[in-house]
Amino acid sequence: MLAGVFELVAPHLTEKQRRLLAGAGARALGHGGGARMARSSGLSRPTVYAGVRELAERPDPGGRVRRRGGGPKRRTTADPGLLGALDALVDPDTRGDPDSPLRWTCKSTRELAEALTAQGHPVSDDTVGRLLKQRGYTLQRTHKTLVVQP
Questions:
Q1: Are residues 47 and 92 in the same domain?
Q2: Shortest CA distance to 26 belongs to which of 39, 41, 37?
């Protein structure tokens, strides 16, 4: 019965809520409850025991699912040469006044991501867009100019 209840409810819960539910079940089952809950929920024992510990803590008012520092590390931290390589790719095609805060590039984020990946810096086009925005760039498409013939 316990496995059926967990199976029905789990898809609607966040990662933290699943841990807390499994931890509450383990506590309610008493001695050996952690192992039984792990088997019936499909979660690992350390995850169930983490849920038991989290039940004893005060709730996070920010509603965080993971503790600070959890999740994947930033690309710039994991790959320190990424920003330098991005700047080297963007600099030749940068437009705008160097003294002005507005700078833009005509290269697409997809093209830049492919070039960076080829250089050994695997990165997605979304990440390239975020990095460009952080560095003060905007993306502009090319406009045709009308040339008047005399």
A1: no
A2: 37
